[in-house]
Amino acid sequence: MEPIGAAVEVLGDRWALLVLRDVILGDRRYFRALLTGSAEGIASNILADRLVRLVEAGLLTRGTAARGQRARYSLTEAGIQTLPILVALGNWGLDWRPGDEELRQQEIREGGPAFLAELMDDLRARHLNATS
User: Fold this and answer.
1) 44-56 and 14-24 helices cross at what angle (nearest 10)?
2) 27-53: per-residue pLDDT in tens?
3) Which of 1, 23, 46, 57 is placed for a possible disulfide with 10 were both Cys, Cβ 3.0 to 4.6 Å?
4) Single GO molecular-function term (predicted)?
């Protein structure tokens, strides 16, 4: 499969991108936080399916949870590398879709490449180097 087709295979689903957005920009790393924090109102069965798919695709890892504890999802480097894609989609949305402008998207746009690199480094520190 050619590269764009392969990327669309993983990222072409609406919910997959929104889950990644919420993990990356909302720092929601637990199932309940992703479910209740979804502005779009994702159903629990859809969220569970997308989390499994994102883990299988290598964009997220699912931490092992002790009995009675919640599993925490963390970004992989491949997941962190989706940030520029999400930013490009957000910028397109700001330019071409009517609606409320999200402050976070404006902040990312105005910060430019340096801010994006800083945000990706922060994600690496929180997700790849996390021990708890």
Assistant:
1) 80
2) 999 999 999 998 899 999 999 999 999
3) 57
4) DNA binding
